[in-house]
Amino acid sequence: MTSDAGAVREELVARLIDLCEEPAVTGSERPLCDRLEARYRAAGEQVLRVGDSLVVGAADDARPLVLLVGHLDVVPPTEDDRHPRVESRPDGDVVVARGASDMHSGNAVGMHLFEDPALRAASPYALALVLYAGEEGPAAGNQLEAALDAAPWLLDADLAVVLEPTGGAVELGCNGVLHALVTFRGVAAHSARPWLGRNALTAGGAFLTALEGLAPVEHVVDGLAFRDVVVATRAWTPGLEPGGPADGPGNVVPERFTVDLNHRFAPTRDLATAETQLRGTLADLLGDAEADVEIVDRSPAAAPHRDAPAVAALIAAVGGEIGAKQGWTDVARFSERGVPALNLGPGTTEQAHRRGEHVAVDAIVDVASRLRAFLSAPVV
User: What is the pLDDT of residues 164-196, one digit of tens each?
Assistant: First the structure.
């Protein structure tokens, strides 16, 4: 692989567009996985396929192992980003495509580095590539756990670099997530005679007002600030729930009103403790309201692992901004299994899932160059 800067730039852009050309909305990653599997088998790499996920590479007892990790799936495209392309803008060229920021630009960087035979031969680190399905959907459909189970040697890695969008910053750890449904109970009635029922929708008003008044709570871990937040993201009455009829009668006092809550919590506690605390907070906000609380999805937080040798080495080699990951990423799955992990990618969180999603070409080149510096630096 050439080290010429212009050729590297062209190769990274072409690789990103190629990845984005293959629709891989969550649940339909198979064609892209098939193509990548064929690519690496043809190159003579050791490949393990797990569902629609790939582990490429092998353990190396002589060198510490670094994993380059990315998810293959994207959210559904819009007309503004359905067709991958390069656009010249006043502040530089960008690649516009669904998944350009989240996270095929990171995958392009990981593949570019992994496929460089000179780098792999000279690096003090052994490299493996982990490309997995199902990250954008529910936790139960995420295939990273299955890949780690099928290739237990991955758990001996000194570092997992999760190439999620960070705008080129090194983001350590991540917040955990609890997804809760709060359902207010009422009694249905005709809207002309509301006194014959009890309106579950308006019963939720005081709760929503109190919820809006909750301020973020900051926790400092390894010198990095993580923030606890509880946010209402959706709400519905019967007939308007996700997956339900598109409309319902407008003359019925609703007997139920459900609020969808998203809770992000710092890596100062485990899932059980976080759930207990969330239930306590919601009980205080609900007061005497007739309501049920159901936790429907759970994902653990991840500690920063700032003092892990490979994490410290990467920070020293790549420079730039160091921060905490306020969102959730699969660094948590690695952390749970004892593998230090961090987030570093060229995409930006502001562009993730956004209409007209794009990534700056300069950012892709920059992250690839900085990661190459880390993978080329002697292990201290």
Answer: 999 999 999 999 999 999 999 999 999 899 999
Which residue among the candidates 22, 37, 52, 73 is catalytic per the annotation? Answer: 73
Tokens linked to 328: 């959730």
Distance CA 67, CA 154 (A): 8
> Please, which residues have CB within 8 angstroms of residue 273's CB and are 6 or more apart in sequence?
none
Joined together, the tokens standing for residue 239 give 């007939």
Query: What is the per-residue pLDDT for 378?
Result: 84
Answer yes or no: is pLDDT of 380 > 90. Answer: no
Query: What pLDDT score was predicted for residue 379?
Result: 79
Q: Which residues contact 165 (CB under 8 A, 6 or more apart)?
A: 101, 102, 103, 105, 106, 345, 346, 347, 348, 349, 351, 352, 359
* Residue 1, pLDDT above cutoff 60: no
- Bridge partners of 263, per DSSP, are 178, 230
Which listed residue (22, 135, 164, 275) is catalytic?
135
* Residue 91 DSSP label: T
- Residue 135 appears among annotated catalytic residues: yes
Beta strands in 237-304 (DSSP E): 252-253, 256-265, 291-299
Please state the rounded mean pLDDT for residues 351-357.
94
> Which pLDDT band holds residue 372 (cuts at 50, 70, 90)?
very high
Give dist(CA 328, CA 171) in Å, integer: 11
Q: Which residues of 307-344 are buried (b: 16+ CB within 10 A; e: fewer)?
A: ebebbebbbeebeeebbbbbebbbbbbbbbbebbbbbb
Euclidean distance between CA atoms 198 and 355, whole angstroms: 40
Cα separation, 105 vs 289, whole angstroms: 47
Helix count (H) and strand count (E) of the chain? 11, 18
With 90 as the cut, is the pLDDT of residue 139 above it? no
Dihedral sign (CA 238, 240, 246, 252): positive
- Which residue type does 284 have? D
